[in-house]
Amino acid sequence: MSFDLLQLNAAIAKHGPVHRVVIAAIKGSSPRELGASMLLWTGGQSGSIGGGALEYQASQAPKPGLRHYPLGPELGQCCGGHVTLATEYFTQPVQAEDLYIRQIEGDLPLSLPLARMQKAQRNGLGVAAIAYSDGWLAEPIDRPLIPLWIWGAGHVGRAVVHIAAEMPNLNITWIDTSPERFPENTPPHVTIAPAKEPAHLMPHAPLEAQHLIFTYSHALDLAICHAALMRGFAFCGLIGSSSKWTRFRARLAALGHSPRDILNITCPIGNPNLGKLPISIAIGVTQALVLRNTAATIVKRSAIL
To answer: What's the rounded Cα separation, in Å, for the pair 96 and 83?
Structure first.
């Protein structure tokens, strides 16, 4: 988990002063992972540290500092572990890069492990991780969001957006041919982009974008695939059968694309073992994205180390 600087600063700008509560240390079991956090402001909240008694206690009259919770004896939670929560109060936007180190309470100097982590991060020699020591807390700053462009607002597209919108590392752009194609209630952080000719938007997509194509028309699908190959991408997935992909490969080749480039498009996408219902396809597609992006992150970290 990372420190979501953009989310915190946006909450301060919209709601005023904000408390942030983060799981700073864990011994044994915990309802959420290390670094899970929530924001609290007058009349509202976002994020979660696991719900239940732990979250309730932390959200009642929060005060800056550290608090240690034995989950079993004190809160009656079945996890049975021990959790340290760090609570901070922010009235102004936070400025930080890569690693955010600050003293939560006490007057001890910065511990040696955190000082080493800070130095390694500054020199590009290590990957930061959340760490707590002697009243000090270090958290890596969230990496830039991954641009995900979803083409098509039909049943499958809607199911994918429903799941993908819950993933904190995605910046979602949703495209279809008209505003009427989209549901009335869409997640507020998803960018809606109606376009009569969707493929004409492809030149505006970041080169590092990931594309998922689910339109209602094979002609639109083909045009978007063609535009994607012309533009370049980090990933491009197309819904369809093996026979559809065979036809598309021939048509894309006729449009001048090499067989090697065409095979950069993944088709079919999803997990056929999950079934053909839109939600089943969406689960398979988003699972594949999570695995792909996790693997890419591991490779980058290995390269740094």
So the answer is: 26
